[in-house]
Amino acid sequence: MSAPPDKPIDTVPGTAAPKDPAAPKVSEREAREVAEAAREQGWRKPSFAKELFLGRFRLDLIHPHPLPTGEATRRGEEFLSRLRRFCETRIDGARIERDARIPDEVIDGLRELGALGMKIDPRYGGLGLTQVYYNKALALVGSVSPAVGALLSAHQSIGVPQPLKQFGTQEQKDAFLPRLARHDISAFLLTEPDVGSDPARLATTAVPDGDDYVIDGVKLWTTNGVVADLLVVMARVPQSEGHRGGITAFVVEASAEGITVENRNAFMGLRGLENGVTRFHRVRVPAANRIGPEGAGLKIALTTLNTGRLSLPAMCVGAGKWCLKIAREWSAEREQWGRPVARHEAVGAKISFIAATTFALEAVLDLSSQMADEDRNDIRIEAALAKLYGSEMAWLMADELVQIRGGRGFETAESLAARGERGVPAEQLLRDLRINRIFEGSTEIMHLLIAREAVDAHLAVAGDIIDPAKPMADKARAGANAAAFYARWLPKLVAGPGQLPGAYAEFHPSGHPDLAAHLRYVERTSRKLARSTFYAMSRWQGRMETKQGFLGRIVDIGAELFAMSAACVRAEHLRASGDHGREAYQLADVFCRQSRLRTEELFGRLWSNTDDIDTQVVKGVLSGTYTWLEAGIVDPSSDGPWIADATPGPPARENVHRPIP
């Protein structure tokens, strides 16, 4: 869907486009090294989730539940009240879905509310909301229109404001943040047609030229890019005298000469999303617009995402709440065989799952967000787990809602209303939520990212042992360090508070379900998880990174344990504050029971699975062994390359950039 190249090329239908000659050629090892260099290497603050993966259940890091200040609550609630009125009176979600566009007047209204500056400091004209209330706002907006929620999230969570807040100079903040707080829309441009989660192959270049950089390249899936005023662009600076080079972040004016939005992309969901293909041709950017030093772009992007990822589970929580509301109202109204469908066990189990999971997702989100606001814990794993778990569970809840609604769940809201019934957009929710399993790190990439952080302590002491490139002297030193570490660590995985019947007694108040038993399970299971990880590392050593199925299950177990912990802590907080405590305990109890079943299944699949035979079948599929199985169909796909040509050069399409005045 990108512009055609300057010269005609012969392309066999169904084949990839010619590779961009400017794209760097990198090996698998080089790609891993680039990703590793972009990681935050140290752990300067404690992390509940990191400790959980190491078999240490540090309940003290999350209990008592951290709380926002009174002033933060007052400002947050006041804004939510105004935002709710705006959502109820000014945003027509059905119109956005029908027209596949957010009306200009909606964006103007968001500007008037200050919604573009929710996370920007008041000194720059923003609202300065906490992460907790920013998430509540996204959940509220996303419930009426996920496309509007995505616009606000992309603008503030990964767009220009967040990296400037963390890495920008004072001059950059003074120049750009007031614009972003009141009027300008921002976008984040990293992905390219042939570059997704492997940024080592980034082809867009930024060549130094005097006091400027000259950017050339093509960026794909630029959320907000069609209407953006300011862009964060990741480009590769060539190494040269006086320039260390590397992937670097820039703030770029979207109206700059040489920038062309060549296509507004359309998707199965989020139909109002202003997402496009953006071409840069000899775009001059002042060196003063570079964020951080050369080569720091990926580190800036990943650090920005540490809290930016929380915007997605925020909207997933909002989706869960809406699923629960519709499931409750519909299943009480609809009767089958003489009673409401909710009273039938098959449907009731789905409603229970939706209610319990919504409670747990909100617990995970609020806990992670409040810890981000307090900045006393390192939440890189917690935020990643919230994104992973929220996107997966919200999709399941939406799927269950469609099933509960039956044929009406498959029917569009517009069709339902046209024949006289309530227009419930259940099928739209399913389509809109599907992207969350891909956005900002797919589930598969999140598994690997979290797994890397989870085994960081092991690699710190034993990484050289399994690295084939390390000399024997380094391996010997690593062996001695590892022996000392594991001599201290392994004995602690044998026994713990989870085996003491009276542990965590404050989570079993009189007349309430016993959440203490679930926390004891979490403590025991975290040690079992750590033992399983150690055994796998001992068994596979350097091949561990190829065991992606195993690593994914390890991470999913950790996600369940984190969710159980957050649910129990939230329930006790609500009980202590007198806010629906008894009901919260019941929801936490049923969630933990459901979660424990999933956890035990995952443990079983650690060692009993089809991973090896799956690999053999994949080899057969790719070699053409099973092409006979594809007989008897007609492929409706159009002709064209699998990956569009992204060779740098002048645009060959009309500019569809549509800045909103």
UniProtKB/TrEMBL annotation:
InterPro entries on file: Acyl-CoA_dehydrogenase, Acyl-CoA_Oxase/DH_mid-dom, Acyl-CoA_Oxase/DH_mid-dom_sf, AcylCo_DH-like_C, AcylCo_DH/oxidase_C, AcylCoA_DH/ox_N, AcylCoA_DH/ox_N_sf, AcylCoA_DH/oxidase_NM_dom_sf
Keyword NAD: no
Domain Acyl-CoA dehydrogenase/oxidase C-terminal: 295-453
Keyword Flavoprotein: yes
Gene3D superfamilies linked: Acyl-CoA dehydrogenase/oxidase, N-terminal domain, Butyryl-CoA Dehydrogenase, subunit A, domain 2, Butyryl-CoA Dehydrogenase, subunit A, domain 3
Pfam families linked to this entry: Acyl-CoA_dh_1, Acyl-CoA_dh_M, Acyl-CoA_dh_N
GO annotation (BP), single: fatty acid beta-oxidation using acyl-CoA dehydrogenase
Annotated Acyl-CoA oxidase/dehydrogenase middle domain residues: 187-283
UniProt entry keywords in alphabetical sequence: FAD, Flavoprotein, Oxidoreductase
Cofactor(s) this protein cannot do without: FAD
Record-level Gene Ontology MF annotations: acyl-CoA dehydrogenase activity; flavin adenine dinucleotide binding
Biased composition (Basic and acidic residues): 26-40
GO cellular component: cytoplasm
Domain named Acyl-CoA dehydrogenase/oxidase N-terminal: residues: 77-182
Region described as Disordered: spans on this chain: 1-40, 639-661
UniProt feature coiled coil, ranges: none
PANTHER family in the cross-refs: ACYL-COA DEHYDROGENASE FADE10-RELATED, MEDIUM-CHAIN SPECIFIC ACYL-COA DEHYDROGENASE, MITOCHONDRIAL-RELATED
Family the UniProt entry places it in: Belongs to the acyl-CoA dehydrogenase family.
Protein name according to UniProt: Acyl-CoA dehydrogenase family protein
